[in-house]
Amino acid sequence: MINLEIEQIFDSFDKNTIFKDKSLLQSNHKPEEILHRRQQIKQIASILAPILRGEKTSNLFLYGKTGSGKTLSVQYVQEQLLKRAKENNKYKLRIEYLNCKLKKISDTEYRILAELIKKMGGSVPDTGLPTQAVYSKFIEIIDSEKQLIVLILDEIDQTVKKISSDFLYNLTRMNSELSKSQICIVGISNDLTFLDQVDPRVKSSLSEEEIVFPPYNALQLKDILNNRAKLAFKEGIIEEGVVEKCAAFAAREHGDARRALDLLRIAGELTERDNSKKIKLKYIDEANEKIEKDKILDIISLEPKQFQLVLYSIIKLSEQKNKEGKRQLQLTKGTAFSSKEPIFTGDVYNFYQELCLKNKIDALTQRRVSDIIQEFDMLGIINVRVISKGRGGRMREIKLAIPRLIVEKAKEIIQGVLNYV
DNA sequence: AGGTATTCACATGAAACTATTCTCTGAGTTAGG
DNA sequence: TAACTCAGAGAATAGTTTCATGTGAATACCTGT
Questions:
Q1: Closest C1' nucleotide to A374's CA
Q2: A364 CA – B18 C1', rounded, Å
Q3: Who has the most CB within 10 Å: A179, A244, A385, A390?
C-alpha cells in the first residue's frame, strides 16, 4: 500500500510542474549575458587588455557588496581573454581564480600559496614546511617558463584582515624575483574601505586601479530575475508581482542579486512542495523566512560546543529577564509588554560557569568568553553594545537579535548537543 | 555648586602556551643475497 | 646492503590562557563661595 503513496509522491515530483531548469537559479550558475554590468566589464577589459600583448598591467581591485556581480564579471573577462590569447598564441597566459574565503583555504598565507601552487600543477604538503619554502616553490613553479600570470583573488579583504597586509606586499614584491614571468593581481573585495586599512607603503607598491560595483537597484534586479526566470520556470507559472517582490526584498539587502535568485528558487521549491500550480506572493515571504532561519540555525549548529554553551546562557538569561520584566510590568501597570531586557557580560559568564559545572565541561576564561560574545555579535546572532555604568563598571550590553521562533529551535539544537555528550 | 579624582567591572591587546597535524631526517631494524 | 620502520625535530594552526593596560561615567571627595 505504501508503495502506492510513494509512487504518487514520485509521480507528482516527476511531473515537475514548476521548474524547467532549476540550475539556472543556483548561485553558481554563470549566465551567458551579464545584465547591467556592461560598464564595469568594459573597464576591466580595458585595464587588462595589455596582457594580450604580453605586457604587465596594473594591479586591479574590484569593490562591491556581495551579489553585485563582481566575480561574474571578472570571470567573464577571464574567459574572453583566454580565448583571445589562444587565438594569437604569442605569449603564454595563465589566469587563476581563487576564492580566498573557501573554508579550507581562508585564513593563512601558507594555505593560499599552497592552493595556488596546486592550481599551477605543483603540490605542497598541508603543513610542515616553512612558509618561506612555500614561497620559493611558488616562484620556482611560475618562473619555470616564460608566462604571464593573472591571479584573481576573491574576497581578499577577509584574508588581509586575518593575516596582515604583508601578504599583499609579498605578492607585489614577487615580480622582482621573477626573471621570466610576471604576475598581476586582481583583488576582489566586499569591503569598500578595504584599501584604506592597508599600510600605505604596501598600497603604493600595488600601484592599483580600482573599479567599484554599485549595488543593483530594484529595477535592475527585476531585469535579471526576469531573464533567468524565463528559462528556469515553465511558462505562466509565476504570478503577477512575484518577481517584483523578490527584487524589492533583495534591493533592501544592498541589492544582492544572489539573494534575489535564492529567494526565487526557494519560493519555487516551496511551491512545488505545496503542490501548488503557481508561485504566489506568499511563497516569497516564506522563502525569505526560510533563508534567514536556515542561515542562523546553520551557523549555530556548526559552532563549537563552548560557543553553543555561551549562546545557551545568553538565551536562558534573556528569557529569565524577560519574564521578570513582564511580571514587574504586569504588577505595576498590568500590561504585558515584552521588551527585550538586556543582559550583561558578568551574568553570562556566571551562568556559563554553572552550566559547565553541571555538564562536567571545562569552563573557559572570562577573557575568552568575552571574545566569543563578540564573535556572536559579528555573526548577527546577538546585538552588543559596550556601556559604562559609571561606578558599576563597564561591560557589554547583550540582546538577542534573532526571532523567538528561531530561538526555540536553537535551544533544541544546543540541548541536543549537550545531552548527547 | 562646581570641579577633580576614584573606582568599578569589565574591555581590549599582546604574548605565550598547548595540542594537533604534518613533513623530513636519520638511526636502527630487517630480510634477502 | 637496500628497504623499511619509527622516533624525534621542526613548522604551522587553532584555540586558549596569562599578564597588562585601557576606559566611560556614576560616585566620592574637595574647594571655594
A1: B11
A2: 14
A3: A244
Q: How far is the CA of A376 from the C1' of C27 (A)?
A: 33
Render each residue's pLDDT in chain A as its tens digit; 421 residues.
678 888 877 776 666 667 777 777 787 788 877 888 889 999 999 988 888 887 778 888 888 888 888 888 998 998 888 888 887 766 778 888 888 766 555 567 777 888 888 777 777 776 767 777 777 788 878 877 788 888 888 888 777 766 666 677 777 777 777 777 888 888 888 877 777 666 666 777 777 788 889 998 888 988 888 888 888 877 777 777 888 888 888 888 888 888 888 888 888 888 888 877 778 888 888 999 999 899 999 899 989 999 999 999 999 999 888 777 666 655 554 433 344 678 999 999 999 999 999 988 899 999 999 999 999 999 999 999 999 998 889 999 999 988 888 999 999 999 988 775 4
Q: Residues with Cβ < 8 Å from A152, sequence gap 6 or more? A: A74, A75, A78, A95, A96, A97, A98, A186, A188
CATH number of the CATH domain containing A182: 3.40.50.300
Residue nearest to nucleotide C12 (CA to C1'): A127
* Grid cell of A341 as nine digits: 531586557
Q: Give the DSSP letter string of A333-346.
A: T---------EEHH
CA of A353 to C1' of C14 (A): 23
A282 and A310 co-located in one domain: no
Cα A232 to Cα A234: distance, rounded to the nearest angstrom: 7
Nucleotides of B under 7 A from a protein CB: 6-14, 21-24
> Residue A355 in contact with residue A345, Cβ under 8 Å?
no
Residues A112 and A176 both lie in one domain? yes
Distance A108 CA to B20 C1' (A): 17
Taking the CA of residue A367 and the C1' sugar atom of nucleotide B15, their distance in angstroms comes to 14
Total count of domains within chain A: 3
Find which nucleotide's C1' atom is closest to A127's CA.
B22
Q: Which of residues 359-418 of A touch strand B (CB under 7 A)?
A: 366-367, 370, 373-374, 386, 388, 390-396
* CB A108 within 7 Å, strand B: no
Query: CB of residue A110 closer than 7 A to nucleic acid strand C?
Result: yes
> A221 and A205 share a domain?
no
Q: How far apart are CA A80 and CA A76, in angstroms?
A: 6
Placement of cell 553558481 in the chain? A28
**Could you tell me if A215 and A182 are in contact, meaning their C-beta atoms sit under 8 angstroms apart?**
no
- Examine the domain organization and report whether A192 and A225 are in the same domain: no
Residues A161 and A242 in one domain: no
A57 and A191 both lie in a single domain: yes
